[in-house]
Amino acid sequence: MTNESELLTAAAVSTSGAAFRFLVTDDMKIKAITRSQADGHPSDQKPPSRNPDPSMHPFAKQREYSRAVIASKMDRMFAKPFIGAIECGDGVYGMARDSARLGVVATSGAMGELAIHDVPTRQTLLNVPNAHQGIVSSLAFSHTSKSLRGDSRLLSAGLDKHVRMWDANRSTDAGDDAGLIDEEDATAEQKPLRTWTANAGVNCITHNLLHPTFATASNAIQVWEEARTEPVETYTWGHDNISALKFSPTEHTIMAAAAGDRSISLWDTRVAGGSIGRILTPFKMNDLSFNPILPTLLLSAGEDHNLYLWDIRNMGGGAIQIYKDHVAAVTSCDWSPTGQQIASGGWDRTVRIWDKNHGRSSDCYHTKRMQRLMNVQYSLDSKYVLTGSDDGNLRIWKARASEKIGQMDARERDRINYRDSLRERWSGVGEVRQVERRRNLPKAIRNASKLKKTMVDSQKTKEENSRLHTQAGQTKPKSEKKKSVIKEQTLFLTYSLVIIQPSTMSATTLPTLEEVIDKNLKRGRELFYKDLEFSLESGVDESANKAKLQSKLADEYKGAQNLPPSLAAQEGPRGKKSRKADAEDISAQTQKAIEGSTSKKPDEQSLILHKSFPKNVNESASTSTNGSSSIVNSYNNFEGTKLSQQLMKIKNQTQAKPDYHPQWKLMRVISGHLGWVRCVAVEPDNKWFATGAGDRTIKIWDLASGELKLSLTGHISTVRGLAVSNRHPYLFSCGEDKMVKCWDLESNKVIRHYHGHLSGVYAMAVHPTLDLLVTSGRDSVARVWDMRTRAPVHVLTGHKGTVGAVATQDADPQIITGSMDSTVKLWDLAAGKAMTTLTHHKKSVRSLAVHPTEYSFASGSAGGNNIKKWKCPEGQFVHNFSGHDAVINSLSLNADGVLFSGADNGSMSFWDYKTGLPFQSMSDIPQPGSLDAEAGIFCSTFDQTGSRLITGCADKTIKMYKEVSRVFLLGGTTTSSSLSSSVIVALFALAGGASSSLSSIQTTPSAVSVYSSSLALLRDTGSGSGSTGSGFFTLLPGCLKESCDGKMQLSDASLCHVSKYHHKSNHSTHSGNGVKTTATLSNSPSSSTTVMNVFD
């Protein structure tokens, strides 16, 4: 038996990952080894057992272990990673380091400015305030393009579609001093050395390390040479914008791209078509980074809070490492020049330092004032980490938090090295291990980590229960690394001679070009054969090939004959046609398009065969026996040049005829708020509406009379959004106090709060068919809530600025958001991911309006062409609403096709939604006692009928507008034998251009009595019967139609018939002065011309 001192000494020593437990008896102590499952993680690399000197005395081991504990504690206690910050004019949206100069970094912002900084001296070398119009999204230093004296060049890319090259080493003297770069030199005017124009707004740019070429990414990848003005290659694949693009540091022809459709694709400029493979991930990737030492390793930063490490030789096999510690979307990542450490930053406002072989971060940096991180990069010497955030600061951090900066003598350096060796030797043992793993995190990060762990554990439990209750063999557990890839896709390159498989990177020879062309022509001919109804080849017997063609169509093109439901829904309004009717219309349109190739009518569609041949290719065409043109192409003398042959549908551009809309006029001005009226909402029953204002109150008004019914208080700041549920008696409100409240309208009390936004909440919307609430605000995210349980359903991340507008509808995309980053995003509600990002706007998007019956919506921003119409579900651009040159704060749209736009300068416009043409413009007039500067429109909405418009104004008032009802007084004689010579009078009250609101009338020369009815009635006013029950004659809806020039015509004589009605005693009187217009009633050949008076 050993003595007590030996047992105590042995208790201080343990193996990796183990802890000792003592069982004490009367005369001895028994040592037992216990292990905790929480000590390690599956992705962690187990530290090896270290015993450098087995012959060391037990006392020496205890002494060394104590020193290791003290060293690790001192390292954590005195770690100060933050060094300093360089203030930038705006949020840092782009960052690039100069590989030729240590400590030189370029940054860019959202207002078009870029700057180059010297990090050691924190001096600005160059500042260009108006380098681009709008956001400068990405920067890259040119590694091969230098001036004669060796100056570097900087490439900047923006959402204005331009790529510009700048002199990155500005050393010219702009002032009186000589040879000294100061603030005067940095701010001197500088023009770009060269400019390129891309096909769309550029999201990212990357430069080749070995050649003077660079690549840009938007909705396509374009490869440029610095000596040319046009792209040398353009690659397209996918349905969304590309968010990240990087050249390989060693293989100068390989590129990696990440897109909004959750794909990561590899491209090779040596291969025709470019793409060599693609994988589909569960979440979108925001950034990519190649390992500088092992170029086959690719790092990606995802929206699911994780980083993924891929081997590009076998990306379909899943990620080889997953890094999990972030609690929000990771926006940027970078490798250290040594290739062993990783730095990342995201929306959780922290910087994480990782070891390549460990799935948990080794350190976490944060400050109180730092906001969301946009860019993270290592310095060239691997000692510092540079971060750019949207709070307008470029921050400098130590790569190792406890490393001492400055000069050290040999004795101090040896002491630091000895402490480091102790910490490494005992890093997996006892208290040293606990100290090394300890993180001083903010409370918000700790709470978010606990919540994330709970959600992950719940998902694992759900999957395990699903497997337990499923038949054996049906489901198998899948590792996290395997789940990182949903699908692997290999692109078939039609006109390339070699295709490279991403899994094996082996070359496969494709068929010859002639074989591919013949096969494509054959398939295209068979696809449209069913609609042509004539043979495409002269002399072909239809009866002989009928069974053969139908069999091929059934096998190969079963799903291609009819459009899918999502596309067929675009052909018209919702709920108007059945699927069968849509299919018949599509088939008829296809037939008309094909036959329209010989038609002369300008409004028909034609389906033509567009051919692009080299000059040495002969073409010939033959005509079939039945007179129809056949398409026969000859490919003689083909010498390897590219052949582009495709079917294109050409639509003749004809201006659509606008619908008639009545004029609008001010109906009522309501006062009661003590601040700007920022939001308004109408309840589904159309009895009252609610408004929220800067006085922190919510007021409910009677819609018919405008009287105040109720005031609700509870917000401590401006109320910015309101929404009324059409399924429950709930009113939702949000404000700049970060609060989202649910009010019970039966008790007029707050019953729920929705917590999660980190800043002011600016917009909200209720889903029309689901119990979901969507909110958005200044934290650049939109959050989806379960309105009944208050549980967060999704956090929609992807915007880079304040999300100031949100809209919902019952079909995909069910959520639409507009942001200050000048983009509109369409979201998939089921997956919580962005389907499409629309980048057509040049300035911040402040308002959205969804059509109530069609798959379309409008968005408003500032500047020219600031209102745009889009078509769902893909977000196809339709047309602009041009002419309202102001900052559009509000858009409203009713079912009759009237679009209202209100601006911050008080200007208002009414548009025909179908054609985009304005039919009325007016200005908001501030009320007495208000300044002229308070003539602004902040919010607006139509009531449920679409005939009244409610606006919230800067003069603290609410204004209601209504349509000007037109009363048509028709006077004349009738030739009917049953009536003597009399005057026929009719009232035709139009509402929104529709004939749904017709009225019966009783008239005198000075007054018109109006009754609510669904029919327009003609009354005999001149009969001599003397009876009190006068006769009325029915004019059915649709008989009278008004053209754009103001004339009324009887559309169909067969629709009009005569019947008897009796006069009603209850009536109201309407009188007015008439404007004479001529109309012709043609219900019989002998009818005479009638004079029509129009009353307003």
Describe, in plain words, how this protein is organized in 3D.
- The protein is mainly β and 1096 residues long.
- The protein has 4 domains: 1-39, no CATH class; 82-403 and 439-448, YVTN repeat-like/Quinoprotein amine dehydrogenase (Methylamine Dehydrogenase, Chain H, 7 Propeller); 664-963, YVTN repeat-like/Quinoprotein amine dehydrogenase (Methylamine Dehydrogenase, Chain H), CATH 2.130.10; 967-1095, no CATH class.
- The chain contains 12 helices and 74 strands.
- The protein has a 5-stranded antiparallel β-sheet with strand order 16-17-18-19-31, with no helix packed on it. A 4-stranded antiparallel β-sheet has the order 3-30-29-28, with no helix packed on it.
- Helix 2 packs across helix 4 and helix 2 (58-77) runs parallel beside helix 5 (430-437).
- It is globular and about 100 Å long.
- Mean pLDDT is 72; it is low at 1-26, 172-181, 491-510, 526-541, 557-564, 566-587, 589-653 and 966-1096.
CATH architectural label of the largest domain: 7 Propeller
Estimate what percentage of residues fall within beta strands.
35-45%
The spatial strand order of the largest sheet comes to 16-17-18-19-31
Tally of individual domains? 4
Q: Give the overall pLDDT as a whole number.
A: 72
Number of strands: 74
Helix content: 10-25%
CATH class of the largest domain: Mainly Beta
Shape field = globular
Give the low-confidence spans.
Answer: 1-26, 172-181, 491-510, 526-541, 557-564, 566-587, 589-653, 966-1096
User: What does the largest sheet look like?
Assistant: 5 strands, antiparallel
Radius of gyration: 37 Å
The rounded distance between the terminal residues' Cα atoms is 113 Å
**Fourth-level CATH superfamily of the largest domain:** YVTN repeat-like/Quinoprotein amine dehydrogenase
Task: Indicate the structural class.
Answer: mainly beta
- CATH fold assignment of the largest domain: Methylamine Dehydrogenase, Chain H
Number of helices: 12
Protein name: Pre-mRNA-splicing factor PRP46
Region (Disordered): 34-58, 451-482, 559-605, 1064-1096
Subunit structure: Associated with the spliceosome.
Keywords: mRNA processing, mRNA splicing, Nucleus, Repeat, Ribonucleoprotein, Spliceosome, WD repeat
